[in-house]
């Protein structure tokens, strides 16, 4: 029910009431614990998010041994940083290069690597993205302002299984000698889904 | 099932119109947070698996599925799961009043706030043990079976009947097409590469490939 051009909206008041009533019913029945719900929300609002993925990428850019492990066993490489759990049990990293650009989608639902990126943005779960990422990826990228050279091959990963995909973007030029923390600022969430490239230093600074 | 959720290749659904990354909140309203959390918390009761929860959302009328916002679809799925697992009766859901005779809390262990971080951290790996060997190896050409089951499947419509090449073996995982119907079976799983031209025809670009994770029962060998 988009009304502002996005695939979300202020809820009709009856929807918010229905959810409240359902929660009360389940609490009264003893089937959920209200404080447990708060912990779940806090985890995904404040603890698990794309900073995790940005650290993985910055490490891969600066530490060849870590990158080797990440490309051969991403689940273990990411767990080594303390990130493991729901929707990240089987991770696969796909690497961008001058020749290849990777893009991740879930056409059937909303599969997404929660442990390294948190919960997916609205657009990732929306019908427009899910329908066209597989059939017209160049046009999809253009909607994010991403234009690749004609010679760059696009690989689209449709997340149909419990394997979760993370894109390793290319390290921007002009970042030689940068430390992990500074590099992380260049690694946007969108670059790890593959709809954008990593930020270039001048832009990130402005 | 050929439902409203199987969106790959559809036209006419409009622009993506993404919110700016640094401006988008994790949730857009309180009710979304609650639906998300209730879905995860009731999932921890062990009455259904992830494939059943996906199937509960996708069984809606396609028009509803596409029209609803994301968490509205979660809410619909949640209500379906609560009813089908008999945790809640249809009368309770309609009246939003509990029926004291229907005491289902004693059939489950309800996680408290201290249990949640451990459960989320533990996750739920999809791998299973097997004595069987995968039939296909990397580089082997395959085609996707042309099946149209009324139940759940993770072989998207746009790939069925099309030829691809095994990209990589991914292991022996729970097979959702069965698991969604409470039949806990596994199957070998592969990443399969399809050229855009093989999926979408001559109008597609030469420089694009689509990789789909498919289970062995979704695949059949093709002659070179």
Name a few traits of the molecule:
heterodimer; A: 206 residues; Nitrile Hydratase, Chain A; two-stranded parallel sheet; 12 helices; disordered N terminus; B: 224 residues; alpha+beta; Cyclin A, domain 1; 2 domains; 5-stranded antiparallel β-sheet; 5 strands; globular
Please tell me about this protein's structure.
The complex is a heterodimer of chains A (206) and B (224). Chain A has 206 residues and is α/β, with parallel strands linked by helices. Chain A has twelve helices and four strands, in the order H-H-H-H-H-E-E-H-H-H-H-E-E-H-H-H. Chain A has helices at residues 13-28, 34-47, 50-62, 64-72, 74-79, 114-117, 122-125, 127-132, 137-143, 180-184, 189-193, 201-205, and strands at residues 90-95, 100-105, 153-158, 163-168. In chain A, the strands form two sheets. Chain A has a two-stranded parallel sheet. Chain A has a two-stranded parallel ribbon with strand order 2-3. In chain A, helix 3 (50-62) crosses helix 4. Chain B folds into two domains: 30-122, Cyclin A, domain 1 (Orthogonal Bundle), CATH 1.10.472.20; 141-221, SH3 type barrels (Roll), CATH 2.30.30. Helices cover 29% and strands 17% of the residues of chain B. Chain B has a five-stranded antiparallel sheet with strand order 4-3-2-1-5. In chain B, helix 1 packs parallel to helix 4 and helix 2 (50-58) crosses helix 4 (70-84). The longest helix of chain B has 15 residues, at 70-84. Chain B is globular, with a radius of gyration of 20 Å. The relative contact order of chain B is 0.14. The interface between A and B is large, with 86 and 98 residues.
């Amino acid at each position: 029910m988009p009304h502002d051009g996005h695939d979300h909206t202020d809820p009709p008041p009856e929807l918010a009431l229905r959810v409240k009533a359902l929660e009360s019913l389940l609490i009264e029945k003893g089937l959920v614990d209200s404080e447990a719900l708060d912990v779940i929300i806090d985890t995904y609002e404040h603890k698990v998010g794309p900073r995790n993925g940005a650290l993985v990428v910055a490490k891969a850019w600066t530490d060849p041994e870590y990158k080797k492990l990440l490309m051969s066993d991403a689940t273990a490489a990411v767990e080594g940083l303390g990130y493991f759990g729901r929707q990240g049990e089987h991770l696969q990293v796909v690497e961008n290069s001058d020749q290849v650009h990777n893009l991740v989608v879930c056409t059937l639902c909303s599969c997404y690597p929660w442990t390294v990126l948190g919960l997916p943005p609205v657009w990732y779960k929306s019908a427009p993205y899910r329908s066209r990422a597989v059939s017209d990826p160049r046009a999809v990228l253009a909607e994010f302002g991403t234009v690749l050279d004609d010679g760059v091959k696009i690989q689209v990963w449709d997340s149909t299984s419990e394997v979760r995909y993370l894109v390793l973007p290319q390290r921007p030029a002009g970042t030689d000698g940068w430390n992990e923390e500074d590099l992380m600022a260049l690694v946007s969430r969108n670059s790890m889904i593959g709809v954008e490239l990593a930020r270039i230093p001048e832009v990130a600074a402005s | 099932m050929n439902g409203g959720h199987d969106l790959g290749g559809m036209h006419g659904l409009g622009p993506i119109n993404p919110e700016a990354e640094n401006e988008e909140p994790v949730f857009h309203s309180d009710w979304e947070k609650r639906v998300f959390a209730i879905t995860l918390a009731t999932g921890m009761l062990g009455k259904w698996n992830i494939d059943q929860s996906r199937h509960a959302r996708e069984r809606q009328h396609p028009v509803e599925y596409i029209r609803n916002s994301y968490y509205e679809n979660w809410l619909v799925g949640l209500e379906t799961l609560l009813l089908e697992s008999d945790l809640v009766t249809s009368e309770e859901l309609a009246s939003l009043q509990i029926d004291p005779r229907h005491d289902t809390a004693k059939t489950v262990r309800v996680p408290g706030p201290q249990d949640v971080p451990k459960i989320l951290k533990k996750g739920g790996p999809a791998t299973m043990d097997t004595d069987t060997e995968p039939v296909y190896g990397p580089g082997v050409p395959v085609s996707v079976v042309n099946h149209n089951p009324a139940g759940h499947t993770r072989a998207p419509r746009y790939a069925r009947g099309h030829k691809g090449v095994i990209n990589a073996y991914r292991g022996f995982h729970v097979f959702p097409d069965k698991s969604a119907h409470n039949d806990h079976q596994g199957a070998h799983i592969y990443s399969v590469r399809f050229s855009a031209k093989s999926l979408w025809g001559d109008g597609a670009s030469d420089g694009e490939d689509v990789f789909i994770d498919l289970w062995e029962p979704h695949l059949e060998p093709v002659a070179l």
